[in-house]
Write a structure and sequence with these properties.
Blueprint lengths: L4 E6 L2 H12 L3 E6 L4 E3 L4 E3 L2 H8 L4 E2 L7 H9 L4 E5 L6 H4 L6 E5 L7 E2 L2 H7 L4 E8 L9 E8 L6 H25 L15 E2 L15 H10 L6 E7 L2 E14 L9 E3 L4 E5 L2 E9 L6 E2 H7 L7 E2 L1
Parallel strand pairs: 1-2, 1-6, 2-5, 6-7, 8-11
Antiparallel strand pairs: 3-4, 7-9, 9-10, 12-13, 12-18, 13-16, 14-15, 15-16, 16-17
Helix pairs in contact: 1-2, 1-6, 5-7
Length: 315
Amino acid sequence: MNKLRIVFMGTPAFAAGVLDAIRKNGCNVVGVITAADKPAGRGQKLNFSAVKQYALDNNLNLLQPTNLKDETFLSDLKALNADVQVVVAFRMLPQIVWQMPKFGTFNLHASLLPDYRGAAPINWAIINGDTKSGVTTFFIDDKIDTGAIILKAEIEIGDDENAGQLHDRLMILGSDVVLETLLMINSGAVTVKQQIDHSDMRAAPKLTKETCRINFEKSVISIHNFVRGLSPYPAAWCTFNDDGQLWNVRIFETSTSKEKHNHKIGQIFTGKKDLKIAVCDGYINVVALQFPGKKKMVVGKFLNGMKLSAEAFGS
């Protein structure tokens, strides 16, 4: 497999982890394609992607096109003479790019396709309360995440596992599946299966600030799944209102208490080391949170420095 010329395309840490695994297993990575640098933070300092940093650290041939149809980029890409292109968490490719290698271009997606096509499959699987997830490799076509499936691998989701923890486990699983896919391509033993859509298929749209807001009208288990599905990033949030003082609060970890009560939805109750919020079928116990301008902290430490009144509400 060290003779197979591979171009790798990806951007975030998930992709960098897969790139590291295939290189350490003797794969011949002749080029790396990643996103252009973007200004970030108050100082608008240019921010490197995790894949770019990995490529620089390991002296890999790096391209950062702003336009995937640019003639100069296409010429540089063709000059790499790739046998196959591997895509992990990158962007939609034009046909002229994904058809370029003789063995095609395949993508690693962090779900069991056709479920959770889209930008945030790991988050939505947990938000929806799924008990299993997985990864899929497929040959790219002219639509998003619809191509012919090469391999799948399944993994159980823990009851209290968050998106960050599942992300790390899927990165390891995905690395193994990419390597196996490359072995199949190298040996000429690839067989594929077309995706078949079904009526209750679930999507994984991009997360926005508004879709990350907690709805305390929902059940305890729904809110608990929502919080862990967005933890540690981008994080679920809500507004605490205490006598007209408003704070947008990020919540990273919760536990549940399912019980009947007569309290108003969203009412906040605090003890010396605990904070819970009334919901329709019980209470959400907040374990870790972050107030504006503060660091993330466990709720006991937060309550050492700040007290909420009996009139405080979450919304």
